[in-house]
Design a protein that fits this description.
430 residues; alpha+beta; Helix Hairpins; Immunoglobulin-like; 3 domains; 5-stranded mixed beta sheet; 4-stranded antiparallel beta sheet; 13 helices; 40% helix; disordered C terminus
């Protein structure tokens, strides 16, 4: 059965009218992308299916330093106790082989037996006493109750072996504990970055800026800042690179290792033709999956250890058209930095187009600045008019009060007499 033809033509129907309306560009929501570097500087990467696990044992010291504290303490305790038990067994076997544990002489005369017989180690009567002697030898306590004699070469050999192995264990374990407590990332805890990055116009150019600071008074010698953009790219041959790292140039002082990190500084990257952010507009930034990684490196002045602090900024953490608030002021000949405003920004007029469009059409920046100047002047006019109106209202109100007070003073007073008990009371009413 054929469909009945409508009386209204199709081009004038709702579907036809809707198809001819101008549509705004629709941008898809940005898919939540995993960060490559977390805000605290940790690398957000999981290593899976590593078949050659033996490579970690070839560098035991670094493996122990990289372990968590609870595993390091367990290994530390287990290593020492195991060495004490192992050599306690060795001392007990030496005493057993030499006949020091024979109790037939002790049954006759204990004092005479211990004084007349030659022993490898005196006063080693059981495994517990051998364990205590092992601890005394390795830790060099030496209480004096047990000692080695020159009558047993085997005992002398065991003593030398335990001293050498004990020194090696002490050097490795104590060095591991020292390196874990003096790691360079501990100093990086006092190197801070702003929570957000900003893109704003500076010297007629779009610039990407962040703020860094050092909470300690001890300086970072030779401080350098490096910026990298990490994004997923596809080559001309169709190869997909999931983590493509692109270096971002910074200012001349930062690039030449002459950064003086005494007070909080703003690191600026000019978005030019060589920048990977050159074709990025404010609307495209919201839908992009880029991640800007910041590296701050330098040598600690007090220890001489090289340290590195890291952080990253994704698209949601980049504010377009904002500027950092100044926090360094001069007070009575002394510079002071207010860290409570470290990450504060203010909104300023900034073109929403990309840096490429600004280079191709410089009039966009001029028009934007003119509009901001006009809006600023209008706001000043409104503010001045409001102040003028408020002053007029205040003067009118004060004049009205003076007139009312003058009328009240000039008004005649009328007295009313009312009878009362035992006399008359006069009440004056103005």
């Amino acid at each position: 059965m054929l469909a009945r033809k409508s009386i209204i033509p199709e081009e004038f129907g709702l579907p036809g009218l809707a198809s001819r309306l101008p549509r705004k560009p629709v941008f898809r929501d940005r898919v939540n992308k995993a960060r490559f570097i977390a805000k605290n500087g940790a690398c957000n990467l999981a290593h899976k299916n590593i078949r050659e696990q033996g490579r970690f044992l070839q560098d035991v010291f670094t493996t122990l330093v990289d372990l968590r504290w609870r595993f390091t303490l367990v290994i530390f305790t287990t290593t020492f106790v195991s060495s004490w038990l192992l050599f306690a067994m060795s001392w007990w076997l030496v005493a057993f082989a030499h006949g020091d544990l024979d109790s037939r002489d002790l049954d006759l005369d204990p004092d005479r037996a211990w004084t007349n017989k030659t022993y490898c180690v005196t006063n080693v009567k059981s495994f517990i006493s051998a364990f205590l002697f092992s601890i005394e030898v390795q830790v060099t306590i030496g209480f004096g109750g047990r000692m080695i004699t020159e009558h047993c070469p085997t005992a002398i050999t065991v003593l030398i072996m335990q001293n050498i192995i004990g020194l090696i264990i002490n050097a490795v374990m104590l060095g591991c504990i020292f390196m874990k407590t003096a790691q360079s990332n501990r100093r990086a805890e006092t190197l801070i970055f702003s929570r957000h990055a900003v893109i704003v116009v500076r010297n007629n150019c779009l610039c990407f800026m962040i703020r860094i600071g050092d909470l300690r008074k001890s300086m970072i010698i030779g401080a350098t800042v490096r910026l990298q953009v990490v994004r997923k790219t596809t080559t001309l041959e169709g190869e997909v690179i999931p983590i493509h790292q692109i270096n971002i140039p910074t200012e001349t002082a930062v690039a030449s290792n002459s950064l003086l990190l005494l007070a909080p500084l703003i690191i600026c990257h000019v978005i030019d033709k060589e920048s990977p952010l050159y074709d990025l507009s404010a609307m495209e930034l919201q839908c992009s999956d880029l991640e800007v990684i910041v590296f701050l490196e330098g040598v600690v002045e007090t220890t001489g250890i090289t340290t590195q602090a890291r952080t990253s900024y994704i698209a949601e953490e980049i504010q377009w058209g904002h500027r950092f608030v100044p926090i360094v002021t001069e007070e009575e000949g002394l510079y002071s930095a207010d860290y409570s405003k470290f990450g504060n920004t203010v909104k300023v007029t900034t073109p929403r187009c990309s840096a490429r469009e600004l280079d191709e059409k410089p009039s966009i920046l001029i028009q934007t600045l003119q509009k901001s100047e006009l809006s600023h002047q209008n706001s000043l006019r409104k503010r001045n008019s409001m102040r003028r109106n408020n002053s007029i209202r205040k003067s009118a109100a004060s004049g009205l009060r003076r007139n009312n007070s003058a009328l009240a003073a000039a008004a005649p007073k009328v007295q009313f007499f009312t009878p009362s008990d035992g006399g008359q009371n006069a009440n004056a009413v103005a």
